[in-house]
Amino acid sequence: MSIGDRDSDCPPSPPGALGDPYDGTTEEEEAVEETQVGGRAGGEGEEEEAAPGPPELPDLLSGKRILLHASLSAHERRSLQRLIVAWNGSVVADDASEVDFVIANHGWDESFDEVLVGSPAVVFVRPRWLLESLRRGALAPPQPFAIAP
Q1: How many beta carbons lie within 10 A of that of residue 95, not counting itself?
Q2: Which of 32, 113, 129, 130 is deepest in the core (most CB within 10 A)?
Q3: Is residue 134 included in any domain, yes or no?
Q4: Could you give the number of structural domains in the chain?
Q5: What was the pLDDT predicted at 115?
Q6: Which pLDDT value is given to residue 77?
Q7: Is 107 part of a structural domain of the chain?
Q8: Which residues fall within 8 angstroms of residue 104, CB to CB, at 6 or more apart?
Q9: Mind telling me which SUPFAM superfamilies this protein's record contains (predicted)?
Q10: How many CA atoms does the CB half-sphere of 130 hold within 13 Å?
Q11: Bridge partners of 67?
């Protein structure tokens, strides 16, 4: 009996039984779904509604340059930065020459005097000012959240 005879006497193995991930075939499927212009698949006349995306956020902080003071924890800084960017504001570096708002967690600091030199109209506020502004959908008056010398 030869090796070839032995193979023909054995029942065939079920697909994938020998660890073959291709189930004994190396043929690639040739049926490729055509995509029409606009990203829709299917034949002519088929209407497919686009899935609604997240709602557009208003540009509440558009053009506003905001400095996040070192008194904020890393978690607070990250959370506030995400909100500022999402609402189209800019987070500026500590050495920025022009700043509209400084968000800090404590009272007046000597470093605030340095910021005032480059940005005399800067407003120093607590983090709740930003949260209240976002809740209202408009900039909240800074006075209740202001940090003054």
Answers
A1: 9
A2: 130
A3: yes
A4: 1
A5: 87
A6: 96
A7: yes
A8: 69, 71, 72, 112, 124, 125, 126, 147
A9: BRCT domain (SSF52113)
A10: 31
A11: 92, 102
The owner of tokens 């340059």 is 65
CA distance 29 to 15: 17
Strand partners, 56: none
Helix axes 74-86, 127-136, angle to 10 degrees: 30
Q: Which token pair is 11?
A: 């029942």
Q: Would you state the structure tokens that stand for residue 104, as one six-digit string?
A: 């800090």
Structure tokens at 100: 């509209």
Separation CA 76–CA 69 (nearest Å): 10
Q: pTM for the complete prediction? A: 0.62
Q: Encoding tokens for residue 89? A: 């504001």
- Domain around 134: 65-145
pLDDT tens by residue, 21-68: 555 555 554 444 444 444 444 555 555 667 787 777 667 899 999 999
Domain membership of residue 49 (yes or no) is no
- Here the tokens at position 90 are 């800019």
Q: Note whether 96 and 65 are within 8 A (CB).
A: yes
At 34 the pLDDT is: 44
Strand ranges inside the chain, DSSP E: 65-68, 90-92, 101-103, 123-125
